[in-house]
Every structure is written in structure tokens, then in C-alpha cells.
Amino acid sequence: MLRVALRPRFMGLLALMVVATLVCGLLATWQWDRAHRAMQQQSAVDRSLGSIQDVVQPGDAVTNSIQGGIVRAEGSYDPDQQVLVPGRRIDGEDAVIVVTALHVRTDDGTTALLPVARGWVPEEDVTGKDGQPDPGRAPAPPSGRVDVSGRLEASESASQGIEHGIAQEIATPLLVNEWGEPMYAGYVGVDHAADGLRAMPAAESAFSTGLNWQNLGYALQWVLFGGFFLYLWWRSVRTAYLDELAERRERMQSRLALAEGEDPVAAHEDDDHPTVGPAGADPTVKGETGADSASTR
Hints:
alpha/beta, five-stranded mixed barrel, elongated, transmembrane, transmembrane helix, cell membrane
């Protein structure tokens, strides 16, 4: 099979497959680097980014480069713009997150809404008599101007709406429908306990916890693609080798069948034209002939 692999046609195909494999390797390295950088950024506990106005503008996406960093914001809370996010598990407890809109003055003088996860409480602390979370039991936000510091997180994916002050995700597309706009695309998770709430844990966003696995999955896919190109070349060489081997076997069998077919013909010709020598003569016939000749004379 090595002779087949060294033919110019297959060597050219190998060169093409090697180039494709190298491209897949570069793409896999790029995805791995993205995943590694994202994990480093998420593990940076005290990575301060500065004021929210200097980091991101309302409506802009929260990218990997700023996600998880500590930002500051100054503004005032609106107690009428507050939702509860139940169904979380934090520090081994069933938790409910309290999210309130912070009105922030932007550089152009307008006011934008910044969703702030002010903290969380045990689910039982805000559960009403009907067994459902009651927004009225949540700690009210402080009044007046406040300074907020916390981790900047990307919006979670929206799967359900907001009903009676209860949301299933911290999703800014849903909050815009409830509170209006302009609004920041991400939210801030307060990293210290305040206002009767417990501090938000790092990387509470489902987006941030899932992005690393997504990049790692992409890297693995590119590695598999690269291996597939090399396997495709090997399979092509092997198929050509087996085809040629089968062709040679078929030619050999044809020659053997032809050779075996000539023997009966030769034998048949010998039967039609027998060779009679002295050893093959019948002495009886010769004697009788001699006697007849003698009697005739």
C-alpha cells in the first residue's frame, strides 16, 4: 500500500489534506485561547473596570473582555421597578434574587436603566401563604442617590415572561418590556451584602458559565475535522490499493481458468489422432496376416 500512497496523485491529495488539517488546528487553537481567556477573566475576582459609563453604553453587548469585571455606578433606585428571580441554588440554599432598576445619568445627559441584582435571600423568606414568591416580602431598595459596585454580567437568555413581579431569568429583553428604555444590555451583581440581602456570587449568569464549554466544544470539533481529513486520505489510498489488488487477483484467476481450459482440448486432439508405434502393433493381427499370405501363396 506504500507504493500506492507515494504516487503523485495521492501525494498531492495528502498535501491538500495536510493544509486543511493545519487550518483546523489553527481554528481549534483560536477557540481554545478564547475559552482560556474567558476562564481567566471570570476567575479575576478584583478586576476593576471603572465607571459603568466608561465601560459600556446602553444597549451595547457585554463582551468576554469586560464580563465579570467590577464596575461602579451612581444613581437612584426605583422601588416600583423591581422583580424577583426564584429557582436558584446558592451556597446550598434555595435562593431568590432581587433585581432592581438603577437610574443612571449617561454622558449625554439622558437617564438609562441599569438592572442591578442587589443580592439574594432564602426562598422561604419571601414565600407567601400560597407557596409562591411574593415581591412585597423582598427588602425595599434604599432611597436617594446610591453608589453601586459589583460584577458586570451579560444578560441571561429569555425563555419566559415576567408575571406579577416574578421573572425566571435576569434577561434585559424582558426587563425592557416591563421598565422601558434606554437600558444597559447586561446587569450588575452586587458583590457585598447590603440592605438585608446576601452578596451575589461570581458568574451567576448562565451565559458566562456556559460560554467556556461552548468554546471548548468548538475547539474539539475543529480537532475532529482535522483528523477526518487525514482519515479521508488514508481511506482513499486503501480503497485504491484494494481495488488494484482485486483487479490483479481477477486477472490471475482468468489466466488460470484459461490454462485449465486448454488441457481438455489437447487431450481431445490426442484421442482423434492417436500415435501408433511398433510397441502399439497387435502381434495377433500380424500373425493372421502372415498366415493368410502364406495360404494364398
